[in-house]
Amino acid sequence: MKPFTITSRLEVYDSLDELDAHVQELMHKAIEVRNNAYAPYSQFKVGAAVQLANGEMILGSNQENASYPSGLCAERTAVYAAGANYPNEKVKAIAISAKSMKHRIISPVPPCGACRQALVEYEVKQDEAIELYFMGETGKVIKADSVKDLLPLVFDNSCL
Ligand code: THU
User: Fold this and answer.
1) What is the pLDDT of residues 67-104, one digit of tens each?
2) I need a surface site. Which of 9, 29, 57, 156 has the fewest CB within 10 A?
3) Is the beta carbon of 110 within 6 A of some atom in ligand 1?
């Protein structure tokens, strides 16, 4: 038996004001598009803004369905729209913000496992890391330099 340790380094910011202006702008877009979430079942609205290398920002929000599994998270809505419309542009960063219609979320809400898996595919495709920034409705923001920091032992095309 040979143990090994997995470590990730994340950065925690007390508020969005501590981040660079371009990150603040990206997060403000995520907050804005959060209002477009269609979340009648969970009452949990998520907005995501993807920054492309060409300067475009592609936005997404969660879209739910009466057949629950048919719905889609904000992060995948955004990154798939980016891939569908700008297949040759690199994804530089994604900003995510979540708000519950039931209570105030003051802790950062990380992307779900399925979204991490979807996002890491683009890191592999473009051979470049994607920065992640995520927060709740207000309060602290967490930054990860790469999706892999949130998804160690990644399953990717090298496993096939
Ligand atoms: N949701 C997201 O949009 N992103 C995540 O990373 C976690 C969950 C959505 C899916 C569903 O519409 C609602 O939040 C509650 O799970």
Assistant:
1) 999 999 999 999 999 999 999 999 999 999 999 999 99
2) 9
3) no
Matching residue, tokens 């297949």: 87
Domains and CATH numbers, the chain: 11-155 (3.40.140.10)
Is the minimum distance from the CB of 111 to ligand 1 under 6 angstroms?
Answer: yes
Ligand 1 closest atom vs CA 77: 3
Q: In terms of pTM, does the model score above 0.85?
A: yes
Q: Tell me how far the alpha carbon of residue 73 lies from the centroid of ligand 1, in angstroms.
A: 5
Could you tell me whether strands 141-144 and 131-135 are parallel, antiparallel, or unpaired per DSSP bridges? antiparallel
Radius of gyration of the chain (CA): 16
Catalytic residue numbers read 75
In terms of Cα–Cα distance, which of 115, 148, 118, 117 is closest to 131? 148
